[in-house]
Write a structure and sequence with these properties.
Pfam families: Bactofilin
Structural class: mainly beta
Shape: globular
Organism: Methylotenera mobilis (strain JLW8 / ATCC BAA-1282 / DSM 17540)
Number of strands: 16
InterPro entries: BacA/B
Largest sheet: 10 strands, parallel
Number of helices: 0
Distance between the termini: 26 Å
Radius of gyration: 13 Å
Helix content: under 10%
Number of domains: 1
Protein name: Cell shape determination protein CcmA
Strand content: over 45%
Family: Belongs to the bactofilin family.
């Protein structure tokens, strides 16, 4: 499958929330964020800096998520907004609406909510 260059997920992880770690509160990040633990709160990037969120199979986020690019293979309880690209891998479980520009969904991924397409002018 061919993707625009902008849809490639960055390989650099600047911040890691490890397995067994639980964070309660809002997280504002830039660059690459990987979540293997649990976050209870909003996870968002600054509007002027495109960033990548990776949620592993063991990861869980309870709250709204906003990022340019996302790879989800864990559990999300809350709305998800990916302004450029989102990949929902086999173990992904999303309870909430998913706002996307480009979506890749693997067999086995589950969404309990609406899929809402964002056009290229979405913020």
């Amino acid at each position: 499958m061919f993707f625009k260059k902008s849809n490639r997920v960055q390989n650099t992880i600047d911040t890691l929330i490890g397995v067994g770690t639980r964070v309660e509160g809002n997280i504002h990040f830039s660059g690459g964020l990987r979540v293997d633990g649990t976050v209870i709160g909003t996870v968002a990037e600054p509007n002027d800096q495109p960033s990548t969120l990776i949620l592993s199979e063991l990861g869980r986020i309870e709250g709204a998520i906003t990022a340019s690019k996302m790879v989800v293979n864990g559990t999300v309880v809350g709305p998800v907004k990916a302004t450029q690209f989102i990949e929902l891998q086999t173990k992904a479980r999303v309870t909430g609406d998913v706002y996307y520009n480009t979506l890749e969904m693997h067999t086995g991924a589950v969404i309990e909510g609406k899929l809402v397409y964002l056009d290229d002018n979405a913020e």
